[in-house]
Amino acid sequence: MTLTIDTRNLDAAAAVSAPEGTLFRFATAGSVDDGKSTLVGRLLHDSKAILADQLEAVTRTSTERGFGGESGGIDFALLTDGLRAEREQGITIDVAYRYFATPARSFILADCPGHVQYTRNMVTGATTADAVIMLIDARKGVLEQTRRHLSVVALLRVPHVIIAVNKIDLLDYSEAAYREVEASVRLVTAELGIAEVLVIPVSALVGDNVVDRSERTPWYDGPSLLELLETLTVIDDLDERGQATEAFRLPVQLVLRPQGAVVVAPELADSYRDYRAYAGQVASGSIKVGDSVSVEPGGGTSTVTGIDFAGVALDEAFAPQSIALRLADDLDIARGAVIAAVDTLPPITRSLEADLFWLDPRPLAPGARVLLKFGTTVVQALISAVTGRLDLTTLAGEPATSLAVNDIGQASIRLSRDLPIERYTQNRRSGAFLVIHPQDGATLAAGIVTAPGEPTRAGDGSGAGSDVSP
Amino acid sequence: MRAPPMTTALVSTSTSTSTPTAHRLSELDVLESEAIHIIREVVAEFERPVLLFSGGKDSVVVLHLAAKAFWPGKIPFSLLHVDTGHNFPEVLEFRDKTVAAHGVRLTVAKVEDYIQDGRLVERADGTRNPLQTMPLLDAIAAGRHDAVFGGARRDEDKARAKERILSLRDEFGQWDPRNQRPELWNLYNGRHTVGQHVRAFPISNWTELNVWRYIERENIELPPLYYAHDREVYRRDNMWRAVSPVSPPHADETVELRTVRYRTVGDMSCTGAVDSQAASVADVVREVGVSTITERGATRADDRISEAAMEDRKKEGYF
């Protein structure tokens, strides 16, 4: 099979997605030399997402470097390795984002390199992904790196996990060899509690089962990788009627209070004189005009009187729309507040247990003072104890008193003020946070709440208000 | 020009955002809400944001998104343009009209001033794109801006594909691609120390086609040269270059009148036009949808200097 840069081969229709189609985000991961860049290049090339000038540049560089072989003389890795150091050293340093579309949907691909700072890159790619494609070299089977990546995917609850068993061509398309790898992968994913795993035999180099189903794997009757990506559901937690199932949460970004300095038509300006609305992106669930809401901090309740989307009044809003909410009562609401469906807020607490994905070269020691960012709230916090670390070889917990870069561990954290804290397993947006260095501002870790601490007060109700964030 | 977008264009979105039957957003709606979220985060967390505004389609879209983010209030930040002195006059005219319509303040930093007083030297090839970095950094420092919005997109270039939505720059404006903050969920970390600033790219995840479909849906006005028009051009570097005082043809280059349009709008000395009959936004959407060449590959001479031309400029503080 040879590739050609003849642009007449580019099927024009294939490059155009439906204007009102869905957007699907996925990440690719795998160990060094598993052929991930080749797979990504193949996916982009065979779905006609690489344009003629990009292909020309890659072909020119491939030829200059004497690249040959079955891919038709094109080093696909050059397509995603965007930085000079990456091309010179033949490595991938950082997550690269690629965009392509088929008539079925549009895709955002986060290409996560496997060897350097794998946790950092994997976590970055996985937090926004609807699916993760994990590459495994069919000849090597499940490696330690595979287990590590899969444990990140499991903890972050990525909705769809696809295992691409690559280089099947080098095993002469042997079903027995593939089944052996498949069985050992399923053993690991079962151990990690990943409910649904899709396994596909592929050859990224020659293209088997990447875009088109291969005739050389007659024993595999599933979809090709691209077919799968085109049909998996998007993260949205909708029920069968298409309605959001999670409780409504709006982290308030800022208060819109133009005080007369408005852009509406002059004859309408008077009616906007006292306009006040709470702007934010719906993190989960949906809300209708007339619904009752609770607000934290403060514990106040009110009724939604209007939902504005830049001049358009909506009857209903849902995640992930960026809206402005108007309420019947004049509550003390500022950036950092959360507006939630009434009777759904978790207990208010000043402490929590969390899993931390430690991403900074400086290790974490107990007693560290940090900042946590939950939604639009930034709060001072104290890491009171490191309670354990995941042994990524055995996937078992082990005792630990500190965390180093790329470690996944558990910690007890105290907060400087009351917050409604939710488990990540209940709400992926509200239960996730950043750990930030208080002086230099570096993002030290990604955190997910495993358990809120002792309640200082019930979740919804008329308890005493806590301090209002700036 | 028509009325500011607040009273007209915004109403046109009602078909796609109101009365949803299922709680599912289209691709454009997802990208729009993501961009508005980013713009609001930056305004909430920074003291003095500014938007780089050239009048090009991407910065026009970011301005439109900013207007939507703060409706019914005014856009709460000013605009900055680094004028190379080689800009298309019709784009500058459009820029000023748009700024006036939105009621925002525009600061113009001029490369020409730097060349006049010797702080910058004209390059042998005449292109002024790489010369924008110094006036840009000076203007950011003079305005004490801690956040700088730009309309850059990750699909434009391999180096941009690796840049974060919020990208930290040191006091020299430098981008350190090997030491970027991880960007997790939709939690943006804008913390920075004195002297540092952040570049914010709200439409990072948009493609050229997304931008054009949004321009079509929202009825956003653009400079006329984005649409097919007759122009005197000559062939250089496999592109149609406009005949102008700053980009004259060489003796061996033949000038002809062709129907062309611009896919990107920048410095006249390095931006090329493409043959096109796309006279309306719907035509352009169709044309971009089937194009087999990227917009930068088709129209930017400066990015052809080397594989890493954009990366090198960005490390030095370019946008």
UniProtKB/TrEMBL annotation, chain A:
Pfam families on file: GTP-eEF1A_C, GTP_EFTU
Record flagged with keyword Amino-acid biosynthesis: no
GO molecular function: ATP binding; GTP binding; GTPase activity; sulfate adenylyltransferase (ATP) activity
The protein's Enzyme Commission number: 2.7.7.4
Keywords: ATP-binding, GTP-binding, Nucleotide-binding, Nucleotidyltransferase, Transferase
Position of the signal peptide: none
Domain Tr-type G: 21-239
Top-rank taxon: Bacteria
Xref: NCBIfam families: CysN (TIGR02034)
Protein name: sulfate adenylyltransferase
Protein species of origin: Cryobacterium ruanii
